[in-house]
Amino acid sequence: MFERLRALRDAPAIAAGLVALALVLVVQLAQPGSPGRVGLAVFDAYQRAAPREVAGDEQVAVVDIDEASIERLGQWPWPRTEMVTLTERLAAAGAAAVVFDIVFSEHDRTSPTQLSETLDLGDRLAGLPDHDDLLAESFTRAPVVTAYFLDRGGHGGDIEPKASFTLHGSLPTRGVRSYGGAIQPLPVLEAAAQGNGFVSLESDADGIVRRAPLVAIHRGVLVPSLGLEAVRVASDGGSPNLLASDGSGETQGAGGAAVAVRMAGREIPVNDAGEMWVHFPAGERAVLPAWQVIEGAYEDSALAEAVGGRIVFIGGSAAGLQDLVSTPVAERTAGVTVHAAAAEQMLAGDFLERPDWAFGLEVVLVLLLGGGLALILPRLGAALGAVAALVGIAIVAGGSWVAFTEANYLLDPTWPVLALLAVYAVQTVAVFYREERQRAHIHAAFDKYLSPEMVRRIASDPDQLELGGEERDMSVLMCDIRGFSRMSERYAPREVIDFLIEFLTPMSDILLKRQATLDKYIGDAILAFWNAPLDDPDHHRNAARAALEMVEMTRELNRTMPGRDGVIWPGEVGIGIGLNSGLCCVGNMGSRQRLSYSLIGDTVNMASRMEGLTKQYGVPIVAGSALAAELDGFALLELDRVRVVGRDAPETIHALLGDEALAQDEAFIQLAAAHAAMLEAYRSLDWDAAEQALSQAEESYAALGIPKLRELMLERVAALRSAPPPSGWDGVYQATSK
């Protein structure tokens, strides 16, 4: 039964967690391609923490047109004769391929033919060779790869790949980017080169280049990237093969996406767009400044050692060339380094890969971890739930890191982590809201029994509320309405209930204000106590002040309530209050079927007996000796030593007439002196002195509203005079009724 109730209580929090999980899942499923920005940032962090290790026998070199080269050789573009020198020196040094990350799309302005037209020199330079022809001629003597820019517009002519792709499957138009135009090298240069490839790089939304495209579609024809073409030329790899999704055997007719590129015995994994994830090496790549190669600062042997057998990429890091990009490991670097890193990976067969099952695994982890946490978190609570969530996050993050470092897999941990965080946050809020509602409910319920200050303290520190039987030194108040039985005979039950509501409400307000716990209403009676469930070091005085205020409130009600419309007020209402303090057992009382927070003990019984004695002694409040001893400064009058019904030990009882102000009043001081003298004479069997003291203090008794006490003592003195007590009488009065 308890488990079923707990399941019902936890159901809203579980539902809230599952809704949060569903929202995360919907967002995740809405972008099944490349990881989101956070996931990409995680992969960037992995690259910085574990960059690709480059062996000592690097297969790629870079010649950099840097700022120093621009300063040395002049403004870009340089005369093509400089490019001829650069090409021939690299070829002579044994470069496996000379790859230009430069698009020679315009004629050399320093060429004789261009100068003749520009300067109107006629035929005076006609015998000199054209620089573009010289560069083309140098291309025929070296394994050169030229570059072109792809353009989404319709500019330029068709591109004729040097080695056409062999396509396995249908043209992957769904994933691979398509272009309608291109900015190409001069035809004479392109014809002389052994290879040509595009240099267009696409960055992610945050401006960082993480992938190098290996293939694109230009006017319906597959064309290779500069890096892929460089590897083909350098390794004489023949025509590249593109494996499409419907040609891989992995899907049934679902075409439109790239899977892998195969060339020269290598299979290069790519994403749907035909892009290869680039695993960048650590630090700055060592480059050869272009001016040093052109001007011969490198001797032939040194240059051969630097570039021999390697693919040499030629590009520029000078700001004026506008070919700077951001990568995971560098804020700004030359675009040629991306092509170089891609070619290096292809040659080494070392690939970062986001396998086709990665997204499915991430979805499964979202469901398993997020759903599991959603189901167990309400039972675990916030602290243990946080531990469980952190363990789940650690497993996901650790697994992603191990997959990267050990298998070069890119598994995005962000969605499972986000699912755990979302479920934890939402369920924690939901449980907090539920607990706040329960706390508010408890607060409202306890407001009926405890003072607002005590409820606030319990709510802020529930540990103070210890349920279960325990012994405490407590103050107890029992209040009863005089003549309520006769009143009930005179009025209808509904009228009696209305009267009790009007009477008990202000009385309860007083008790709660004085930090009392309302135990129960017994018809017209109120039982209240202090110092439980919370500690109240001033419980004796709080009980006394509450009793005095209740008496004063009764007088106020008697003045204001009669004649009020809709309220039955049965004449002059009187109350009696019994106050006592001592050890009580307080806690959950009752049966296994029903419990109530209450107290039992002799202290409670005595409070009830003292309330009954108020009628006999004619005082509104009777207090026990233990409580009276704690009320220093209050207007207390010792009444008698009484042995109540059902109790053998006698008790000294006191009338509580007022607070510290009344205790300083001259009338009370005179009465207290006269009454003390009367008690001394009474207990000494000096009946004449006792009667004399009572007679002399008649006005004082009347002035303080307790003339019945004087009359009672006069009657008792007279009775004892006529029937003297036995020898050894201790002055204790034996009560005969409750």
Structure overview:
The chain is an alpha/beta fold and 738 residues long. The protein has 4 domains: 2-32 and 357-441; 37-45 and 57-348, no CATH class; 448-656, Nucleotide cyclase, GGDEF domain (Alpha-Beta Plaits, 2-Layer Sandwich), CATH 3.30.70; 665-732. The chain is built from 24 helices and 27 strands. A hairpin with a 2-residue loop joins strand 12 (258-263) and strand 13. The radius of gyration is 50 Å and the shape is rod-shaped. The two termini are 45 Å apart.
Main features:
single chain, 738 residues, alpha/beta, Alpha-Beta Plaits, 4 domains, 7-stranded mixed β-sheet, 24 helices, 27 strands
The shape, in one word, is: rod-shaped
Strand elements, count: 27
The share of residues in helices is 40-55%
Tell me what portion of residues adopts beta-strand conformation: 15-25%
Mean pLDDT: 88
Largest sheet: 9 strands, mixed
Secondary-structure-based class equals alpha/beta
Q: Which ranges are low-confidence, i.e. pLDDT below 50, for 5 or more consecutive residues?
A: none
Compute the gyration radius: what is it?
A: 50 Å
Structurally, the number of domains stands at: 4
Distance between the termini: 45 Å
The helix tally amounts to 24
